[in-house]
Write a structure and sequence with these properties.
36% of the residues are buried. α2 packs antiparallel against α4. 78% of the residues lie in helices and 0% in strands. The chain is an all-alpha fold.
Length: 289
């Protein structure tokens, strides 16, 4: 297995890797906190969450196998050359484990909080059924020949496939609602940072080795970063440009929701003059103090 040629690049590789881990690890917390404060998951697309869980689970299989299994590593070196470096780092495994746990917790929030009539679409359930059927068939195909590298590569491409489609339901939902309310933009900003750092990490490794084998040796990691960056730019455009004027403050507790309803009702009440209406509004404000 190859070693690093220049220590500064090795340090940069490790730093970029853990920046990517930190960005992607933190990314889901704003959405979890937002759901907790609102006691609602309205505005969060459920298809995105269930597809994301399978994506992270598939990516964990790939990362953990290639990082920990000497058998898989030997198959990788046999295929791409003994002078190559294993393209999976400790931060990749740590991220995958963390992402699976947090995404599972998001599903738990969906189960216990107000959903507003939202549900997982039949199309997403069909996609997941086909994906796991294909994975099962590939497992039985790999067992007799011990083609473990090929098998985990299948899981890697499953992760890429689901990444390519998991963002689409949320982007389309934002488009239909003409709003990004209920969907944390902080998640997108951290996700974007993680994607950039992840791509930069692979580039640093290639520069040090004077070889781009690690790019097609772990094409899944590169595609995951590029696809994430692409959709993150779409979400940022929706949030900061297209639907900027459509956002409204979402009440974080029941008292604020009741106050908002009262204010809306008062706006609908006909009154003789504006002073009378303002007086009624003040009464509502005094109730909330």
């Amino acid at each position: 297995m190859a070693s690093w040629n220049w220590i500064p690049l090795e340090i940069a590789y490790e730093i970029l890797g853990w920046i990517a881990f930190a960005s992607w690890a933190i990314a889901l917390y704003p959405q979890i906190i937002l759901n907790f404060r609102r006691k609602s998951v309205v505005g969060l697309n459920f298809d995105f969450v269930v597809l994301n869980l399978t994506k992270h689970s598939s990516y964990l299989v790939y990362n953990a196998a290639l990082y920990f299994s000497s058998t898989v590593q030997n198959q990788y070196l046999l295929k791409f050359g003994s002078g190559q470096m294993i393209p999976v780092a400790a931060n990749d495994v740590a991220f995958s484990i963390h992402a699976v746990l947090l995404t599972a917790f998001l599903l738990f929030q969906i189960a216990i909080y107000e959903r507003g009539g939202q549900a997982v679409s039949k199309i997403s359930l069909l996609i997941l059924s086909v994906v796991w059927l294909v994975a099962g068939v590939c497992i039985f195909h790999a067992l007799p020949t011990h083609s473990w590298l090929w098998l985990i590569s299948v899981f890697n491409f499953i992760a890429v496939f689901l990444t390519a489609i998991k963002y689409t339901p949320q982007a389309f939902m934002n488009f239909k609602r003409k709003s990004t309310d209920g969907f944390s933009i902080e998640f997108i900003l951290f996700d974007f940072s993680g994607g950039v750092a992840n791509y930069a990490q692979m580039t640093v490794q290639s520069i040090d080795q004077n070889s781009w084998v690690n790019f097609h040796g772990n094409i899944g990691k590169i595609l995951l970063a590029l696809i994430s960056i692409f959709f993150d730019l779409i979400f940022m455009c929706q949030h900061f440009i297209l639907y900027r004027q459509k956002r409204v403050a979402i009440p974080s507790n029941i008292k604020e929701k009741e106050s908002l309803v009262k204010c809306v009702d008062l706006q609908m009440i006909p009154s003789k003059n504006s002073e009378e209406k303002q007086s009624l509004m003040k009464c509502v404000d005094s109730e909330n103090v």
